[in-house]
Design goal:
The protein is about 35% helix and about 25% strand. The protein is α/β, with parallel strands linked by helices and about 240 residues long. The chain has a single domain (about 1-235), classed as 3-Layer(aba) Sandwich (Rossmann fold), CATH 3.40.50. Strand 4 and strand 5 (about 65) form a beta hairpin. Helix 3 crosses helix 4 (about 105-120). Bound molecules: adenosine-5'-diphosphate and magnesium ion. Magnesium ion (MG) binds near residues 40, 41, 81, 157 and 158.
C-alpha cells in the first residue's frame, strides 16, 4: 500500500525526516513510534500530500507523490494530530461538510455519516457541538470524519495522545475493528505500549531516522518484549 525510498524532508538546515525506507503491506497495521521531534508528523504530512517531499520517492496504492496527489487523497483517510473540527457545527454537520469536500452526494453522505456516528458510538451526541464532547469523543468524531470517503488507507497522527488509559482502550478497539474489516492503518504514537499492542509492523524513529523496524515480537525478542528497552539500548536515553 505504501512504498517509501530514501524519503527526506529538510527545513533549512534541519533534516526532519532523514532518508526513510519503509513498506506498508496492504491490510496491515503499521506504526511509527518515537519521542517528540522524531519526525513522525512530518512523515505523515508528506504521505498526505500536505507538505512537499525534499527528496526520495513515495508511492501510495501504486500512485506516486507528488504527481498524483489528488488521486492519492481520494483513497486516504486522515486523522490529524491537532483537532480540526469545525466548532460551530454539530457532530452530524462536521461529517456532512467533509463529505462535501469529496463530492459525495447529499443523501448518501447523510446515511454514511449516520453509520459512522454509530460506529464510533456518538449517536446520542449527533446534534452536539465539539466543545460539548469529551476529548475521547472528539477523537472518535475525527476518526468517523476520516472514514467518510470510505478510504483504503487510514492515517492517524497520535490518535490517543492526552487521553486517559480507559478512553485510549476504546480508540484501540475502534482501530482494531477497522483492521478486521481489511483497512490498512498507519499510525504514529509516542506510546511504546500502544505500538506493541496494536501493530503488525513497528518502525522505531528518532531524529528523523528509522532505528529499527519489524513485527513488535521480533524487534523486542532480545529486550524482554519491551520496545522501551530496545529504544533505550539504541539511543542510550529514556523515552518520555
Ligand atoms: N514547519 C516546520 N518548520 C521547521 N521545522 C519543523 C517544521 N515542522 C516540524 N519541524 C521540525 O522537524 C522535526 C520533526 O518534527 P515532527 O515531524 O513534528 O516530529 P514528531 O511528530 O515526531 O514529534 C522537529 O525538530 C520539528 O521541530
Ligand atoms: Mg507529531
Amino acid at each position: 500500500m505504501i512504498e517509501a525510498r530514501s524519503l527526506t524532508k529538510r527545513y533549512k538546515e534541519l533534516t526532519a525526516v532523514d532518508g526513510l525506507d519503509f513498506t506498508v503491506p496492504d491490510g496491515s497495521f503499521f506504526t511509527f513510534v518515537g519521542p517528540n521531534g522524531a519526525g513522525k508528523t512530518t512523515t505523515i504530512r508528506m504521505m498526505c500530500g500536505l507538505t512537499p517531499i525534499t527528496s526520495g520517492s513515495l508511492e501510495i496504492a501504486g500512485m506516486s507523490l507528488p504527481d498524483q496527489v489528488a488521486d492519492v487523497k481520494s483513497v486516504l483517510g486522515v486523522v490529524p494530530q491537532e483537532s480540526s473540527l469545525d466548532r460551530d457545527l454539530t457532530v452530524m454537520e462536521n461529517l456532512l461538510i467533509y463529505a462535501g469536500y469529496f463530492g459525495i452526494e447529499k443523501k448518501l453522505a447523510r446515511s454514511r455519516a449516520e453509520e459512522l456516528i454509530e460506529f464510533v458510538e456518538l449517536t446520542n451526541k449527533i446534534d452536539s457541538q465539539p466543545e460539548e464532547l469529551s476529548g475521547g469523543m472528539r477523537r472518535r468524531l475525527l476518526i468517523a470524519r476520516s472514514l467518510i470517503n470510505n478510504p483504503r488507507l487510514l492515517i492517524l497522527d497520535e490518535p490517543t495522545t492526552g487521553l486517559d488509559p480507559k478512553v485510549r482502550r476504546s480508540i484501540w478497539d475502534t482501530l482494531q475493528d477497522l483492521t478486521t474489516q481489511g483497512m490498512t492503518l498507519v499510525m504514529s504514537t509516542h506510546y511504546m505500549e500502544e505500538a506493541s499492542e496494536l501493530s503488525d509492523i513497528v518502525a522505531v524513529m528518532d531524529h528523523g531516522k528509522i532505528l529499527s523496524s519489524g513485527p513488535p515480537d521480533e524487534l523486542t525478542a532480545d529486550y524482554d518484549g519491551s520496545l522501551e528497552k530496545l529504544f533505550l539500548s539504541m539511543t542510550g536515553k529514556e523515552h518520555d
